[in-house]
From TrEMBL:
This is Uncharacterized protein. It comes from the Bacteria. It comes from Corynebacterium variabile.
Length: 267
């Protein structure tokens, strides 16, 4: 755009792009309206990842993360982008690690699905508090060949190594555990204390598995049924792949379990 001075007036000749600054404000103090699509696009990305929120609740979420009424547009945009990166609306790059929550047709959350580059770990969400305390389902782990569909408010479809597509419910949320390129394998948790635990792990043993959270669940398979044991633990004394697992319980007892085959980060 060309500005031509004629006497005390200025005329603007046709042309594009506009000769205005990319950011900031006009000389007269009016902010550049071209920033608006950038802001609304970022808001849309975040809202698509959390469609269950009303607009007012979404704005409240931004406020709790520092984008309050006094925040600049640049500060608000940074918060929008950060939250959208942490909880994306779709899984585009499966080389990272993600926690996907799925629900049934009634809108009830039923599964926690941890998706890695080549493996999937599925945990059934207990139907009641009683089940969570006494009858927690054993996590199931299997290898996959690709994620066919993973988008909030759409079905989660993952293909196994035999080419069979598994429909795993409607995606209600996606959370990034490790960004693409940052999902390094975990081979040891030696010395980990319960009070400093900041994740959830599945320890795959020689003939059992241990779900490690604030409470540990030991699953062993018998000839006809599955045995569950709830453990109140204090510290992992020895927890390295290729060696027996030794765990100190809250009362001082030390349990030695079979050889640790693999550590899977679930959350």
């Amino acid at each position: 755009m060309d500005i031509v001075l004629q006497g005390s007036f200025a005329t603007v000749s046709p042309g594009f792009p506009l000769g205005r600054p990319r950011h900031g404000s006009y000389d007269g103090g009016v902010k550049d309206p071209r920033r608006i699509p950038v802001m609304t696009d970022a808001l849309t990305r975040l809202w698509e990842a959390r469609p269950d929120l009303t607009l007012t609740r979404l704005l409240g979420l931004l406020e709790t993360h520092g984008a309050d009424w006094n925040a600049t547009d640049e500060e608000t945009l940074a918060v929008l982008r950060r939250l959208a990166e942490e909880t994306p609306a779709r899984l585009d790059d499966p080389t990272g690690r993600y926690l996907v929550t799925t629900e049934n047709s009634a809108g009830v959350a039923t599964q926690l699905v941890t998706v890695g580059a080549d493996r999937v770990a599925v945990r059934q969400i207990p139907a009641s508090r009683t089940d969570a305390v006494h009858d927690l389902p054993q996590p199931v782990v299997w290898e996959h060949s690709g994620v066919r569909s993973c988008h909030v408010a759409a079905p989660l479809v993952i293909t196994d190594t035999e080419g069979i597509a598994h429909r795993m419910g409607l995606v209600s949320s996606i959370r990034v555990i490790a960004a693409p390129g940052e999902d390094a394998p975990v081979t040891s948790l030696d010395g980990l204390r319960r009070r400093t635990l900041d994740g959830v792990y599945l320890l795959e043993l020689e003939d059992a598995s241990l779900l490690l959270d604030r409470t540990a669940w030991l699953f062993t398979t018998g000839r006809r049924d599955l045995h569950r044991e709830r453990l109140t633990w204090a510290r992992l004394l020895d927890c390295t792949v290729g060696a027996p697992l030794r765990i100190a319980l809250d009362g001082g007892e030390v349990r030695e379990l079979p050889e640790l085959r693999r550590i899977t980060v679930l959350e």
